[in-house]
Amino acid sequence: MHLPAIVIGGGHAGLAMSRRLTERSIDHVVIERGEVANSWRTERWDSLRLLTPNWHARLPGAPACSTDPDGFMTAGEVTQLIERYAATIDAPVVDRTTVTRLGAHDDHYEVVTDRGTWTCTTAVIATGGCAVASVPPFAAALPAHVASVTALTYRNPQSLPDGGVLVVGASATGVQLADEIHASGRPVTLSVGEHVRMPRTYRGRDIFWWTETAGILDERFDAVDDVVRARHLPSPQLIGSPERRSIDLNALTEAGVRIVGRLGRIHDGIAHFSGGLANVCALADLKLNRLVRTLDAAATALGIDAEVAPAERFTPTSVAGQPATEVDLAGAGIRAVIWATGLRPDHGWIDLPVFDHAGRIRHDGGAIAGAPGLYVLGLNVLRRRRSSYIGGAAHDTGELAGHLHRHLDRREQLLRTPVGAGRRSSSSDVPCRDR
To answer: How do residues 65-90 score in pLDDT, each as one tens digit?
Structure first.
C-alpha cells in the first residue's frame, strides 16, 4: 500500500503530527509498536509525575486542561491524556505493529513492519528520544550480588533487593529516585556529574511560568549558541510533587543521602568516583544564579515586578569535607545500582544514510538532512527549547507539517511536468526555516 505520509510512533508527538496532517487533508497512518502511549504505559516508575504543570501539556486540536491546571500528571494520567487525544482527533492508528526497517524504495520510502510493508512519499519518525537507557560500558563490571537497574525498569523501592542503593546520575530522574528510595528507609548514595539546578518555584510562580513568560522556551534551535550541547544537556533537577517542593543536592544531603562525585569506573567491587564534585556543583550554582537574574530582568522589562514576589537568591550547594572517591560496594552494603544516566533514541531500524559520526540523526529543525520528505519529532530542542516537553509538540508539528505539505505539493507539480520541460529538483531539500 502506498500513502502520502506515514507517522512512526503513537505517542503525543506522533499523534499531534497526525492531527496536523488531518487538518491538511493528507492521507496517512500512525504505526505504533504497542498501544497508544506505550512507553508511558510500560516504561515508567510508579510514582513518576511530569516536570511540567498540567496547563503546559497543550496539544493541537485538544481542549486546554481544566482540571487542576497547576498540578502535575502521573504517568497513568499522561497515558489517559494521550489515549483521549487519539480518540478525540480520530487518529488512524495501526497499533501492535513493529517497524523493522525504514529505507528507500525507488523515489519513495519503504516502511517494513512485522505485519506488512507500506511505501510512502513522506515519513515522520516520532518514536521519541527516550527509548533506550544509556548505561556506561563499565556497568558490566558490577559484582554478581549487585542488581543493575535502569530508569526504564525501576518501578518502586520494594522492587529492589534489600540493602543500600547507589543512584548514578543527578538529573531529574536521579534526584527523584534517590529521594524516593531514601524515604523508604534504605541508605542511598547519589553519584553526581554535570547537572542543572533549578527551583520548582521562583518569586511565587512555577519555574515553567517564568520560562514561558520570559520567552526562554521559545528560543529557536538556530538561535542557540551550541545547539548540539543544548540538545544533550541533563534535564533540570525538578520534581512534580503536589506540594510543589524543590529538590536539589542540599535537600537530599539534609535528608541523609550520601553525595559523591561522578562515577568513573568499577573494578574488583570498588566504585571509583571523581574528586571534582565541588567544581561541578559550583558550576551548577553559577548557572542557577544566571537564570534567576535573567528572570528578574524579564520581570522588570515586562513591568510585572509588582505582580510577583520579591527576587530570591539560593544557598550555594554544600559539599562538606572531602567526598569519598572510592566505595567498596559490598562493604557499604550496596545491593543495587540504578543507572539514571540518561535515555537515548532507538533508530537501529532506519536503513538510510542520515546519521552523523555519533549515530545521531542529522536534521535541521526536524527536517532530516539529505532525505527530502523525511522528518523527525520528539527530540530535545528540536525546533525550540520547548520541544523537550509535551507542550512543544504543537509548535513543532505545525511547522513541520507545513513543510511536509509543501514537499508533497512540489512532488505533485514535478510529476505533472513533462520530461524535458524544465524539471528541477525539489526545493524541499533546503533547510526547514519556517517561522
So the answer is: 767 999 999 999 999 999 999 999 99
Give me the residue label for grid cell 525504514: 102
Beta strands in 126-203 (DSSP E): 132-133, 147-150, 164-168, 188-191, 196-197, 201-202
Which of 406, 386, 410 lies closest to 396 in space, CA to CA?
386
CB of 30 closer than 8 Å to CB of 91: yes
Total domains in the chain come to 2
Residue 406 lies in a domain: yes
Pairing mode of beta strands 108-113, 99-105: antiparallel
Is 400 part of a structural domain of the chain? yes
Residue 237, H or E segment: strand 236-237
Three cell numbers at 354? 542520515
pLDDT tens readout for residues 222-276 = 999 999 999 999 999 999 999 999 999 999 999 999 999 999 999 999 999 999 9
Amino acid occupying residue 3: L
State the cell numbers at 20.
Answer: 496536523
With the C-alpha atoms ordered 210, 215, 218, 223, is the resulting torsion angle positive or negative?
Answer: negative
Residue 115 domain-assigned (yes or no):
yes
Instruction: Reduce the secondary structure of 252-283 to three states and give it as a string.
Output: HHHHCCEEECCEEEEECCEEEECCCHHHHHHH
pLDDT score recorded for residue 320: 80
CATH of the domain at 74: 3.50.50.60
Residue type at 279 in one-letter notation = N
Q: Are residues 383 and 419 in the same domain?
A: yes
Q: Is 32 helix (H, G, I), strand (E, B) or coil?
A: coil
Q: Which three cell numbers stand for residue 51?
A: 516536570
Sign of CA dihedral 230, 235, 238, 241: positive
Residue-number span of the structural domain to which 329 is assigned: 134-340
108 DSSP β-pair partners: 105
Cell 506540594 maps to which residue? 243
Are 196 and 91 in the same domain? no
**Do the domain assignments include residue 170?**
yes
Answer whether 234's CB lies under 8 Å from 173's CB. no
pTM exceeding 0.90: yes
Q: What would the grid cell of residue 164 be?
A: 543500600
State how far the Cα of 190 lies from the Cα of 341, in Å rounded to an integer: 12
CA angle 26, 30, 34 (to 5 degrees): 175
